[in-house]
Design brief:
The protein is 41% helix and 20% strand. The protein is an alpha+beta fold. The strands form three sheets. A five-stranded mixed beta sheet has the order 7-9-8-10-11. A four-stranded antiparallel beta sheet has the order 1-2-3-4, sandwiched between helices.
């Protein structure tokens, strides 16, 4: 009985120490970085906590004295990247949450799916848009996510909003990419939410292609090259 009580006291003490460490780290991190903390949890390395954010995974020592930016690999598990593996479900969930907001060009014989952060004022995005029939023919479904390069305000944002609020979004895409006028439209288009999701994929420019295995492919590559990169090479 005494042993069980001692174990319970020790467990409570460890939990308390962990909670205190989390509070210290959260306080220091929040003062330096202006983005959301999704979780602070134990990392694969003893004495180091991992800070989970939409921008990525960061690390801090349990005493809150040292901050670490980088990735943790495991020599004993085929050089497993623990940082990348921890972030994968967060990225996958971000895409799943946006599924109803995406404009989808579905392949009849779907083999793979790519999600594309796009901006209808972007020339390279227009070039990729012209490739959709060939991508579909290769068995690749294309899902569009809005990512205005100008951010969530300004004329570039307004054009993207008009497309996402159009009754016929695909026709609006065709018009916008052809540099033809798109009627002004206002709705609850969720562009801000889509734009924010781009942070998780470190969007530096458009288009950014995200394969269904979460591999990111920047730029408007030819369809066959995209197919090769996502594992559909002939």
């Amino acid at each position: 009985m005494k042993r069980l009580l001692a174990t319970a006291v020790l467990s409570a003490s460890l939990l308390s120490a962990s909670a205190v460490a989390n509070t210290i780290i959260e306080d220091k991190f929040s003062k330096l970085f202006p983005f959301e903390i999704m979780a602070i949890e134990d990392s694969p390395v003893s004495g180091v906590k991992q800070i989970v954010t939409p921008k990525g995974i960061y690390y801090a020592t349990e005493d809150g004295e040292h901050f670490i930016q980088g990735q943790i690999y495991d020599f004993g598990e085929g050089f497993k990247n623990h940082t990348s593996e921890r972030f994968k479900p967060i990225k996958a969930n971000a895409l799943e949450v946006l599924a109803d907001e995406m404009v989808v060009y579905k392949a009849a014989n779907e083999k793979r799916v790519i999600s594309v952060f796009t901006d209808v004022t972007c020339g390279y995005c227009g070039r990729l848009h012209q490739s959709i029939p060939e991508l579909n023919e290769l068995g690749i479904t294309v899902r569009y996510i809005a990512y205005p390069r100008s951010g969530t305000s300004g004329s570039g944002y307004a054009v993207n909003r008009d497309v996402w609020c159009a009754d016929d979004k695909k026709a609006a895409f065709d018009s916008a990419f052809a540099r033809q006028p798109v009627p002004t439209a206002v709705c609850d288009n969720k562009i801000d939410k889509m734009y924010k999701a781009g942070d998780m994929f470190n969007v530096q420019g458009t288009p950014l292609i995200v394969a269904d295995n979460l591999v990111s492919i920047p730029g408007a590559l030819p369809p066959k090259q995209i197919a090769e990169k996502i594992g559909l090479a002939e």
